[in-house]
Amino acid sequence: MVKTTNTLYQYGTLALLVPGLFDGTLQLSDLLKHGDTGIGTGDGLDGELIVKDGVAYKVDGNGDIKKLDGDFTVPFADVHFANYQPLVSVKETITPDNLESTILSRKNWSNVFFSIRAHGTFNQVTTRSINKQDKPYPPLVDCARNQHEFHADKVTGTILGYYSPQLFNGAAVGGLHLHFIADDLSIGGHLLNFAMHDGEIDVQKFDQLEQKFPTQSDEFMQHDFSKDDIAGAIGEAE
User: Fold this and answer.
1) DSSP letters of 208-221?
2) If you ran DSSP here, which 8-state letter would residue 14 be given?
3) Could you tell me the residue ranges of all domains in the chain?
4) pTM given for the model
5) Nearest of 203, 187, 221 to residue 82 by alpha carbon
6) Was domain 7-237 assigned CATH 3.30.1330.80?
7) How high is the pLDDT of residue 214?
C-alpha cells in the first residue's frame, strides 16, 4: 500500500455514534494500514483512541493509558500518515478560544480537512473519557453526561486531532476535534480545555478524504438516521 500523506482516512462516521451504534467493526491492525497518526474510539465506546508515531493508545474511563494490540476494534476513527509542516512557535498562551483562529488566520483552510499536532508545555489540561458501554447501548449524549474528567497542571504533551469543514458536520465534528496525550502518559483523552504556553503547532492539509462505511454491520445498514438529531447530539457530546 502506498503511504500517501494528502489523504485523510475515516472509518465510520461520527453520526453513527449518536444513536448508540458502538460496535467495533474494524480491527486496529487494519486501521493502521491507512495511517500512523489519528484519533477515534473503541468497541462499546471503549475509551479515547490516540495514534501517535504509529503506536495506538487507549485512555479508558478511569483515565488510565495503555498501548493497544491489533485486535482492538473501532466503530469510528480518523487516521493519516504524518507529514506535518511547522505553523507557529507558541509565544503567547494558546487556549481553545484562540487555537482555531490562530491556525485559520495563517492558513486559508476553512473549507478543507487538516490535522493539527501541537507539542509543548501546558499550564493546565482537562480531558475526558467514557467507560465502555454494555448492550443495549445508550445514545451518545447519555454517555457524554456520564463522562469522567481528568485535570493536570504543568504537563508536557501532544494535542492531536482534525479540523473538518462545517459542511461535513455529522460525518465528523465540524471544526476542531482534538485529543491529548502526555509525554509521560499521566493524562490523556478527549480534550476539553487547555492553556499551552510554550511549544510548536504543526499542521497538515488533506485534499482527499477516503470514507469507509461499516457495511458489514446490519445495525448500521438498517438504521434510519433521519430520526436522529445529529447536529444537536454532536454539539452536546463533543
Assistant:
1) EEEEE--TT-HHHH
2) G
3) 7-237
4) 0.97
5) 203
6) yes
7) 98
